[in-house]
Specification:
A hairpin with a 5-residue loop joins strand 8 and strand 9. The protein has three helices and 29 strands. The two termini are about 25 Å apart. The strands form seven sheets. It has a five-stranded mixed sheet with strand order 10-11-12-13-17. It has a four-stranded antiparallel sheet with strand order 1-29-28-27, with no helix packed on it. A four-stranded antiparallel sheet has the order 2-3-4-5, with no helix packed on it. With about 350 residues, the chain is mainly beta. The protein has a domain of about 110 residues: Methylamine Dehydrogenase, Chain H. The chain is globular. Belongs to the eIF-3 subunit I family.
Length: about 350
């Protein structure tokens, strides 16, 4: 496996994202810098400057035209990917912890923090995609979900953009309505269709599988789970011995990759192996750990998979991004024997 180490941040990483083609990798951290890299060689293409606080979340639309970021400076910004220009900024009363585009890039969701008497909320904004008037965006949200109970920490649209999936501070995974049949705004109980208590602690990451029929979660309760997006049934569980910060599913091989490690505040001068800062590979079906890949000397905070499955990237508390390109043997190996291999069309 060929790792490329990217050094462009001075503080811990918060999130990394590949674009649809996989040639670009975007990274955000607690140092208010938004970087974009060429994924094949690790060259930094540029930065997006403007935030005045830690940048918690980033997402890129399907056409690699627009970029959205959410920050601790209480702003959500939308950027022109090519020029680096900030096109519009939404201001809130509290920090923006999570942002995400819908499938065709016409809407953005964001989660704002619960602080200073303000309840946590999930908002959806409609995006004007006309290049001639990019800087003219709708200031008001088209949907607002206010959390009366446990606040949401992560969220994403489902495959058809008719629902929103959220992960919460108390371990809940919830499904919210997002179409014209339901009210545009309200408290979570009014718009929540169903939920499951998948975890017993904070849900740190929630990512859809390649076909968007399932999602993979990670949590501080040391578990990663594979969950059906329609029924919210837990299909598989991957237990570890350290808190997890991120999890991804490989698009073509039956593996789940999880990352985390000993809490940053508890890290001492002990070795990275004792802190368990490796990326850990689990067989998606058999729920068995198959490999570990070291590299970071602090907890892994975020993971992203290349759209083709040829590589994955990890961002750590150490401030580095590592892009790991898989060897050909990764795609040809049969660790359980040929009779136990899953046909490509069933993965």
């Amino acid at each position: 496996m060929r790792p490329i180490v990217l050094s462009g941040h001075t503080r811990p990483l918060n999130q990394i994202k590949f674009n649809r083609e996989g040639d670009l990798l975007f990274s955000v951290a607690k140092d208010n810098v938004v970087n974009v890299w060429f994924s094949h060689n690790g060259e930094r293409l540029g930065t997006y400057n403007g935030h005045n606080g830690a940048v918690w979340s980033v997402d890129i639309d399907m056409s690699s035209t627009l970029l959205v970021t959410g920050s601790a400076d209480n702003e959500m910004r939308i950027w022109d990917v090519r020029t680096g220009q900030c096109l519009y900024s939404w201001e809130f009363a509290t920090a923006v912890k999570c942002v995400a585009f819908n499938r065709n890039g016409t809407e953005i969701l964001c989660i704002t923090e619960e602080r200073m008497g303000h309840r946590g909320a999930l908002r959806v904004f409609r995006i004007n995609r006309d290049p001639a008037s990019w800087t003219q965006q709708e200031k008001e949200a088209i949907r607002t979900v206010t959390f009366s109970g446990s606040k949401a920490s992560v969220a994403t649209f489902d495959a058809l953009d008719r629902h929103i999936l959220t992960g919460h501070e108390n371990g809940k995974i919830a499904l919210y309505a997002h179409d014209s049949e339901y009210p545009e705004s309200g408290v979570d109980a009014e718009l929540e269709l169903q939920h499951t208590m998948a975890h017993s602690d904070l849900v740190t990451d929630l990512q859809l599988g390649w076909d968007k029929t399932y999602l993979i979660t990670s949590s501080k309760d040391k578990l990663s789970k594979l969950i059906d997006t329609n029924t919210l049934d837990v299909m598989k569980t991957y237990p570890t011995d350290t808190p997890l910060n991120s999890a991804i599913a490989h698009p073509t091989r039956p593996y789940v990759i999880v990352g985390g490690g000993q809490e940053a505040m508890s890290v001492t001068t002990t070795s990275s192996r004792q802190g368990k800062f490796e990326s850990r590979f689990w067989h998606k079906v058999f729920e068995e750990e198959t490999a570990r890949l070291p590299g970071h000397f602090g907890p892994i905070n975020t993971l992203a998979i290349h759209p083709t499955g040829n590589a994955y990237a990890s961002g750590g508390e150490d401030g580095y991004v590592r892009v790991n390109w898989f060897d050909p043997t990764f795609f040809t190996s049969k660790p359980y024997g040929g009779e136990f291999e899953i046909p490509d069309e069933d993965q």
